[in-house]
Amino acid sequence: MEAIFWDHPVRIGTHGERCINGPQEALQYLSELPQGGWFYERARNRCYGALERGEALDLSRKAFIGAAIEGSLPILDDGNQSV
After folding, report:
1. Whether 6 contacts 39, CB under 8 Å
2. Which residues have C-beta within 8 Å of that of residue 81, sequence separation ≥ 6?
3. What is the DSSP letter of 35?
4. How many CA atoms does the CB half-sphere of 77 hold within 13 Å?
5. φ/ψ (deg, to 5) at 8
6. How far, rounded to the nearest angstrom, does the alpha carbon of residue 13 sit from its chain's CA centroid?
7. Looking at beta carbons, which pairs linking 2-8 to residues 24 or more positions away fall under 8 Å?
8. What is the mean pLDDT of each run of 10 residues along the chain (83 residues)?
9. d(CA 33, CA 82)
10. Would you state the torsion angle of the CA atoms of residues 66, 80, 74, 1, taken in this order, to the nearest 10 degrees?
């Protein structure tokens, strides 16, 4: 599977900062979280869709942000990205 990147990474701040650059990294990160929730499932589906079927990358990014918010993970915004 080729690496696909979002236009702007999503920065998660939990005891340090982690930068998620695209749907493949998002899926990896989601696999490390407790599973469950509507946004979590939506993010997994959107990320798989972006990787396997070429679906819209911006939707996978937005879905991942929703899952992070649902999981109470702090999203760090540097002013250069739209969340």
Report:
1. no
2. 8, 9, 10
3. P
4. 5
5. -135, 130
6. 13
7. 4/50, 4/51, 4/57, 6/57, 6/58, 6/60, 6/61, 7/57, 7/58, 8/61, 8/80, 8/81, 8/82
8. 88 85 96 89 97 96 95 74 46
9. 23
10. 60
- Please name the residue that has the structure tokens 């900062």: 17
Q: Which two tokens stand for residue 77?
A: 């915004």
Q: How far is CA 52 from CA 23, 49, 77, 81, in A?
A: 10, 5, 28, 25
Strands (E), the chain: 10-13, 17-20, 75-76
User: Residue 4 and residue 24: Cα distance in Å, rounded?
Assistant: 7
Helix (H, G, I), strand (E, B) or coil at 62: helix
In the chain, the amino acid numbered 16 is G
Please tell me the pTM assigned to this model: 0.86
